[in-house]
TrEMBL record:
Pfam families in the cross-refs: Trep_Strep
The keyword Translocase appears for this protein: no
Keywords (A to Z) from UniProt: Membrane, Transmembrane, Transmembrane helix
Membrane-spanning parts: 21-40, 46-64, 71-87, 93-113, 120-139, 169-189
Protein name: MptD family putative ECF transporter S component
Organism: Dorea ammoniilytica
Keyword Membrane part of the UniProt annotation: yes
Length: 203
């Protein structure tokens, strides 16, 4: 156990940073592909985080298996947050991923990045970061609308969202994210069994 803790506490090497960067790029693509179908529809857009969480689990878990050190997931969240922000997403979407990546980092770190259960929970929490923009939408719809209009979103798109939004949609959004990301993490654990064994990751 002491060797595992010492390994986790060692600083990130250049190789670790490169690996983190590569897997962050892959993760971003998978999240984007999973969520883009929902994002283009003002009625289904609330389920964009669920779509994004469905595909990226194996990539996320493989990153943990490759690096399994503190701050790698946090760095991933910073990079993704910057990318989302500069591509015109609401600031809360970027902030949500950043905050939840840091939370996810500490959750996975609680098991020295060696627990499948904690790593999977970490991914679920990370996926919930995509709800940040929609939380702000429900809390401050007018402010959210002004920000998105400034980012180039059409008024008709926003009007349809506001007409569709209700408490049921908000609850369904969170439930959907948890379910899809849990499925993705489960599939990832099955796919990466040999890689996990090599990295010393257990149930």
């Amino acid at each position: 156990m002491s060797n595992q803790v010492n390994s986790m506490n060692k600083g990130l090497t250049v190789k670790d940073l490169v690996t983190t960067g590569i897997f962050t790029a892959l993760l971003f693509v998978f999240v984007l592909v999973g969520g883009v179908f929902f994002a283009t529809n003002p009625v289904l857009t609330f389920f964009m985080p669920a779509g994004g969480g469905l595909l990226a689990g194996p990539i996320y878990l493989l990153l943990i298996a490759k690096v399994h050190k503190r701050w790698s997931l946090s760095i991933m969240g910073v990079i993704m947050g910057i990318i989302w922000f500069v591509t015109g997403m609401h600031w809360a979407f970027a902030l949500g991923y950043l905050i939840m990546a840091i939370v996810a980092d500490f959750v996975a770190g609680a098991g020295q990045y060696k627990s499948k259960k904690l790593n999977s929970l970490s991914y679920i929490l990370f996926s919930l970061g995509g709800t940040g923009s929609y939380i702000v939408f429900f809390v401050d719809p007018n402010g959210w609308a002004q920000t998105m209009l400034g980012n180039g979103t059409e008024q008709s798109y926003i009007d349809t969202m506001q007409a569709t939004a209700n408490t049921g949609i908000l609850i369904a959004m969170f439930v959907a994210v948890i379910i899809t990301s849990a499925i993705s993490a489960f599939v990832g654990c099955k796919m990466l069994k040999k890689q996990f064994e090599k990295a010393g990751i257990t149930a």
